[in-house]
Amino acid sequence: MANQEKKAQRKPVDAVVSKQRRIQREIDQADRGKPVASKSDAAVQAGARKQPENPLPRQHYAKPNLESRLEPRPRFLAPDYKGSGKLLDMTAIITGGDSGIGRAVAVLFAREGANVAIVYLNEHEDAEETRQYVEKEGRRCLLIPGDVKDAAFCRAAVERTVEAFGQLDILVNNAAFQEHAQSIEELTDEHFDETIRTNIYGYFHMAKAAVPHLKAGAAIINTGSETGLFGQPVLLDYSTTKGAIHAFTQALATNLAPRGIRVNAVAPGPVWTPLNPADQPIDKISSFGHGTDMKRPAQPEEISPAYVFLAAPVCSSYLTGVILPIMGGVTGSA
């Protein structure tokens, strides 16, 4: 009797095993007639216009690098992006706004109706060019050179902006220092301190100076990085700061939510900006961004619309504390 019960219990299980093995045999048979799948090495183009692909020309520049030196020139104009007044008559401060992502954001903010203050270190040529493009969009642009590591300078930059435009509605923290080191032993205290103070203290000083002027509906947008999500072995200090920026974003978002001020971050993957050819070794820059699913770096104009989305109350009024990854794939380029 017991044996009959065991046989009865085994029947459903045996049927499942038989089904699974039959499915396996069918797949095995299908696989035998197929070539081994290989991951495509071609760059992916999914936007309104074709973007530059690898290999990029070999180049390396002294810091702080100028955008005018890069070959090819970074694309920031987003000619297919049509403004619709999402930021009409608002005022924005963008640190690191002279070039790269900051420049692309400044142009789109102006296209959406905002006046823009550009905070930058000493890249006067780039900053002046950015101002010209902002003014071509029909808006005003204020240039403020200085060091965001200095809290007094950050306070003065905010005061100058409010004095010039009468208000402050958006802060984009984007200024950064990045320089690789092959090992933790190679990373000097001076190097580590410069990265920490620029990338974290600068964001903190600017936010602290700006918040008293921000009203309900205002936005702070911090530039994070895929390195703050996954780490990067030769960017120990930079990865550390970007992880801290993500945490700072989420903590400040919760802190300011009762005041109606939203705080979010964008976490880009590799983007073709002056920052990278001034850091990447000359023998590696030609394949910059190839490790992404899209097999190429982003152009600044592919990143900047995300800042408009996070800045505009009509787009993201219920969004705060978000780290928005734009990495050309799922797991980044590391």
Helix-strand blueprint:
Elements: H1 2-32, E1 91-95, H2 100-111, E2 115-120, H3 124-136, E3 141-145, H4 151-165, E4 170-173, H5 189-210, E5 219-223, H6 227-230, H7 236-256, E6 262-268, H8 300-311, H9 313-316, E7 323-326
Parallel strand pairs: 1-2, 1-4, 2-3, 4-5, 5-6, 6-7
Helix pairs in contact: 2-3, 2-8, 4-5, 5-7
Query: How many discrete structural domains?
Result: 1
The first-level CATH class name:
Alpha Beta
Q: In percent, how helical is the residue content?
A: 40-55%
Query: From N to C, what is the helix and strand string?
Result: HEHEHEHEHEHHEHHE
The count of helical stretches stands at 9
The helix-and-strand class reads alpha/beta
Would you give the CATH topology? Rossmann fold
Q: How many β-strand runs?
A: 7
Approximate shape: globular
Report the uncertain regions: none
The CATH superfamily is identified as NAD(P)-binding Rossmann-like Domain
- CATH-derived architecture: 3-Layer(aba) Sandwich
Span from first to last CA?
62 Å
Give the mean pLDDT.
90
Largest sheet: 7 strands, parallel
**Estimated share of beta-strand residues:** 5-15%
Strand arrangement in the largest pleated sheet: 3-2-1-4-5-6-7
Radius of gyration: 25 Å
Give a concise summary.
The chain is α/β, with parallel strands linked by helices and 334 residues long.
Explain what the structure shows.
- The protein has 334 residues and is α/β, with parallel strands linked by helices.
- The chain has 9 helices and 7 strands.
- The protein has helices at residues 2-32, 100-111, 124-136, 151-165, 189-210, 227-230, 236-256, 300-311, 313-316; strands at 91-95, 115-120, 141-145, 170-173, 219-223, 262-268, 323-326.
- Strands 3-2-1-4-5-6-7 form a 7-stranded parallel beta sheet, sandwiched between helices.
- Helix 5 (189-210) runs parallel beside helix 7.
- The mean pLDDT is 90.
